Amino acid sequence: MPYTADQPRPRESADDLRARIPGWGADLDPADRPAVPRERFDPGATGAHWTFPDRQPETQPRERSIEHEELPPVFGDTVHLKGLSGVIRRHAYARYSEARAAHWLLLILGDRVDAIESHLVSFATTRPDEPITQSGVLAELGHRPVGSRLDGRRADLKHMWIDPVIVAGPWLLAGGAVVLAARAVVTRARG
Amino acid sequence: MRAMTYRGPYKVRTEEKDRPKIQHSNDAIVRVTRAAICGSDLHLYHGLMPDTRVGTTFGHEFIGVVEEIGSSVENLSIGDRVMVPFNVYCGSCWFCARGLYSNCHNVNPNATAVGGIYGYSHTAGGYDGGQAEFVRVPFADVGPQLIPEWMDEDDALMCTDALATGYFGAQLGDISEGDTVAVFGAGPVGLFAARSAWLMGAGRVIVIDHLDYRLEKARTFAYAETRNFMHFDDIVVEMKKTTDGLGTDVVIDAVGAEADGNLTQHITGSKLKLQGGSPVALNWAIDSVRKGGTVSVMGAYGPIFSAIKFGDAVNKGLTLRMNQCPVKRQWPRLFEHIRAGHLKPSDIITHRIPLEHISEGYHLFSSKLDDCIKPVIVPSAV
């Protein structure tokens, strides 16, 4: 079609659309759209009966973004910082603003260290981590594992093989390290 | 209590945790009766969101019964059936006073760029989520709302995020009568966004994905035309062809950080975490929309940089609109739509999973097995 000023002709009339689709055009008027305008000053609409909230007790020192002037009055108080991952995360918050890549990359590093630390700690508990039940791979049984993946052409088939590597790779590496260490100990003991 | 617990990338389990306590005078403790796994929970599950700590309970879509209230709570009573928006917000800061509930400045020490979200890492405030028997709900006088007597509980659950976000995304598209609207992603948010586009008078709605079963749902649930991008050498060219070379008036990105369609972008963004997510869908949105058009971004992305084709957006004079949805602001009008029969949100629920089988639920949803679109978690607390 040559490029002209004409508006492309609609495929269906408003009447046809209204007849075919429940509620078609019910919010045609922007005044009926709750997100319009984006900002609407109405502090009485929220249910808040305070001008500033009471402060939640800070039972442990709470890390915060250095872009905040002070600790906000309410915060999540779960899973406190601990171990080497805690040191990394605390440094990310204390040193770098959210504008710095180092802030986020350190936090991701902290996540990976946290996973390793937590796996190691779990081995000293009555419920150690193990990848079979925790990965949910048992859901493959009874949920059409082959048909689900081969129906049509799924784009994610190209990289699905990476997921088991992410899950099992660290376990295999750790197992290999344990075997090598044990072999070294035995070799040394035999003189 | 029993709760879903994150154990590291791709690993979760149900374990015993301490029951949450009142920590602020306006807290409530809610006994969860239904929760859902959101597509954005998969970003946490895959280790994509910075500061996701082992031991965290996910879940920002949940409803339940008020079990305990703090001393200053005025609007709720013990025993009330409530639906809880995924936003944690104070209701009184500069942003909340202007309706930007998702941008609250008083609830997230860890970041200023995002407000508070239940069960969405410490980057979103460090709150535990609702995939558990009990959950702490801060600002009980502000966020939760009684579930209307006439409303189905599954419909109420869908209102806590997926439906509200899809509806919000369509509104950010600034749709005019007769507009052609493309929606990238046929997951729950994309399906709801497509359905909502009709409410605003769209003349055509086209949903794009690579999963045929989801595209089938887009046709039957959202009355949309569909395109499987795997069937085209270049989906952007197809979008131009189907709009007389102009491009669509509006595009809604309902995919986010784990978009497929470009292996390099997916692996660098989603697997290696070298970007704040794979920007494939967002770049397709920028290239598919017409000059002067609007791109509404509802997909969730991580906080670090992504390879966005910003030059094209500038040269095309696009309007880019985005935010986390301020959920409760959408509810009065959404309730009217549900009651009038314009929407039946629970129609997208495909699986119900006991809390004990949470790891299977995540794997099922993550791997898109068994035509999974929306899994609901049933905690069965006593």
TrEMBL record, chain A:
Stretches the record annotates as Disordered: 21-62
Residue stretches of biased makeup (Basic and acidic residues): 30-42
Entry keywords, A to Z: Membrane, Transmembrane, Transmembrane helix
Presence of the UniProt keyword Transmembrane in the record: yes
TM ranges: 165-186
The protein, known as: Uncharacterized protein
Species, as recorded: Labedella endophytica
TrEMBL record, chain B:
Pfam families attached to this UniProt entry: ADH_N, ADH_zinc_N
Residue ranges of domain Alcohol dehydrogenase-like N-terminal in the record: 25-142
Keyword Glycoprotein carried by entry: no
Coiled coil: none
Cofactor(s) the record lists: Zn(2+)
Alphabetical keyword list: Metal-binding, Oxidoreductase, Zinc
One example GO MF annotation: zinc ion binding
Occurrences of domain Alcohol dehydrogenase-like C-terminal (ranges): 188-259
CDD domains: FDH_like_1
Family (UniProt): Belongs to the zinc-containing alcohol dehydrogenase family.
Protein name: Glutathione-dependent formaldehyde dehydrogenase
Lineage of the organism: Bacteria, Bacillati, Actinomycetota, Actinomycetes, Micrococcales
